[in-house]
Design brief:
Blueprint lengths: L11 E5 L4 H13 L7 E5 L10 H4 L9 E4 L2 E4 L1 H10 L11 H36 L5 H21 L13 H9 L14 H11 L2 H5 L10
Parallel strand pairs: 1-2
Antiparallel strand pairs: 1-3, 3-4
Helix pairs in contact: 1-3, 1-6, 4-5, 4-6
């Protein structure tokens, strides 16, 4: 059954919101790979600020009511890292997801690490310092903030150590791993991420911020909650 009968069969539609780091990594991938894809990816805004993610038309795509989601004809794909890989596989000659088995496995290792460890660590702090007040009007829970900071510092220290002497996270060139991990740092200020002393992360992130796809996906200002 076609969810969107009026869409061309071969069209790719990527549902996103600029304040979502999960969506941003998928959008950056789509923009970077755009010239190599057999058809352009159409970006479709799901306005999280109005609750559009809960509308039946969207929850038919993703019952979790989260962005991003990708449709390619009848095919529907959720989960940002899976979408990144799917886009890379669809782009002949791409260089974000290397072909050699061990190089590809190393990129995958960082995608899984990001999903399992880095993203939850950032998200916990972003919820307490920013999203929680917007959604519930409540102040941050001091104990949970301390717990979140400890977890973030633990994970960030691992990444900082890995980046010692490296330009990019995996191999000699930028890969999906860099886009996936860097997307989380868009919450630096709203999540009040404790990044002091992580010089390798700062140097790497500065390189990512120079990328055209990073600059093209810069969201509206997100100041920390008062």
């Amino acid at each position: 059954m076609r969810i969107f009968p009026d869409q061309p069969t071969d069209a790719m539609h990527l549902y996103h919101h600029p304040l979502s780091s999960n969506a941003r990594r998928a959008v950056m991938t789509a923009l970077h790979l755009g010239p190599l894809l057999p058809e352009p990816v159409q970006l479709e805004l799901v306005d999280l600020t109005t609750g559009a993610q809960h509308a039946p038309a969207f929850t038919r795509l993703n019952p979790a009511a989260r962005v991003p989601a990708l449709t390619h004809g009848d095919f529907v794909l959720t989960e940002s890292h899976a979408i990144m890989i799917y886009l890379a596989e669809a782009a002949p000659g791409q260089n974000l997801w290397p072909a050699p088995a061990q190089a590809r496995a190393d990129v995958n290792r960082w995608l899984f690490w990001n999903a399992a460890h880095f993203t939850p660590a950032v998200s916990a702090l972003n919820w307490q310092h920013f999203v929680k007040r917007l959604v519930t009007g409540e102040d941050p829970d001091v104990a949970l903030v301390a717990q979140g900071e400890a977890e973030f510092k633990k994970q960030a220290a691992l990444l900082d150590h890995h980046l010692q002497g490296r330009t990019w996270v995996s191999g000699q060139a930028m890969t999906l791993a860099d886009l996936a991990l860097a997307a989380m740092l868009m919450h630096e200020h709203t999540a009040r991420l404790p990044l002091d002393g992580l010089s390798n992360i700062h140097a790497w992130w500065a390189r990512v911020r120079e990328l055209p796809v990073w600059q093209a996906t810069e969201p509206p200002p997100m100041g920390p909650s008062a």
